[in-house]
């Protein structure tokens, strides 16, 4: 772990599980000043010399410019380091309008609708048309989460539909990050398209099956992995 010090307090995100219901208490994060923002970029540039991939997750803290992720992605691309980006809204829009692109983005269907400002359904033709818009040009992987219905993906010029089994969900907090971990692992291991999509969805579901946040039981990995179906469409 390589951290830098901020003047503000790191926020707590608390999930309370009770009788099958979940309540989230999300504190406000610190506001980042210009000196801290520049300090992290310098720190990041040093780390970039030692890594093979970068995963960026979550919204920008207060105080950072809307193009902050774009600045990070530019540095990654200049070093040939792939970027897996999981964010939404204006931050993602800014990245997509920038000449330096992430390798992977993973919006859900609502976030995709927000980006394109047009109604979408989950039909294959509608999804194909959506992810083929000029806004997404230059992005190698677009993986759209469809919740319990699985996922839809575009890798370069190939489209995939991912069908997942029904599972008992105990705590979904952290499932998106677990999915990002699966994507990153598959890219680092040069896995094929089918295995990348299966690994990503397997880890996301394994996390959702556990009460503990950010935990997966790998003893159940193979069984769930083998139940996922990836179809080229």
From TrEMBL:
It is an enzyme of class 2 (transferase). SUPFAM superfamilies: Ribokinase-like. One of its GO terms (biological process) is lactose catabolic process via tagatose-6-phosphate. Signal peptide: none annotated. This is Tagatose-6-phosphate kinase. InterPro entries: Carboh/pur_kinase_PfkB_CS, LacC, PfkB_dom, Ribokinase-like, Tagatose/fructose_Pkinase. Its EC number is 2.7.1.144. Residues 8-215 form the Carbohydrate kinase PfkB domain. It holds the Pfam family PfkB. It comes from the Bacteria. GO terms for molecular function: ATP binding; phosphofructokinase activity; tagatose-6-phosphate kinase activity. One of its GO terms (cellular component) is cytosol. CDD domains: FruK_PfkB_like. Belongs to the carbohydrate kinase PfkB family. Keywords: ATP-binding, Kinase, Lactose metabolism, Nucleotide-binding, Transferase.
